[in-house]
Specification:
Blueprint lengths: L1 H17 L9 E7 L8 E6 L2 E7 L9 E7 L4 H15 L5 E4 L3 E10 L2 E10 L7 E2 L3 E2 H7 L5
Antiparallel strand pairs: 1-2, 2-3, 3-4, 5-6, 6-7, 7-8, 7-9
């Protein structure tokens, strides 16, 4: 009887471990960060395989460091197209927001001037009806260049 109980316990234990499966992940590399001296991270772009993720500090709460993000695959040079839209916005300074449609998100680029220098604010919402819109803090042009890995 003891041997039968031991056999049942061993079979049960081996079946429970059979449900656990190791998943392959691709390492992510940091493209760039926007951060002022010692201040909390404002934004960061990472790349994992062919997928870019833009993570930004949500400005809704001034005292909390809550981050939002949007991701996209780099199909047809999407990453460089995004940077080109940002560069063009800094040059033309449009009064209206530049709205970009990604497969899962709607991203807004809002350009303005702060103390005479051009700044960018991201907005992001999922394509779900009545989804909340999240905004980043203003990011200066030099910080945006660092964010996109164009200037160190």
């Amino acid at each position: 009887m003891k041997k039968m109980f031991l056999l049942v316990m061993l079979l049960t234990a081996s079946m429970s471990f059979a449900q656990l499966k190791k998943v392959q992940t691709t390492p992510s590399e940091s493209i760039g960060k926007a951060q002022q001296f010692g201040a909390p991270l404002e934004a960061e772009i990472t790349k994992s395989g062919n997928k870019y993720t833009v993570k930004f500090r949500d400005q809704q709460f001034k005292t909390l460091d809550e981050y939002r993000e949007f991701s996209f695959e780099d199909v047809d040079n999407t990453f460089n197209d995004l940077y080109a839209a940002v560069e063009e916005g800094f040059t033309t300074m449009p009064k209206e927001s530049v709205m970009l449609e990604l497969p899962d998100y709607i991203v807004g680029l809002h350009f303005s001037k702060f103390l005479g220098a051009p700044v960018l604010r991201f907005s992001c919402a999922t394509k779900v009806k009545d989804a909340p819109v999240y905004f980043s803090n203003e990011i200066a042009k030099k910080q945006v260049e660092k964010l996109f890995g164009k200037k160190k």
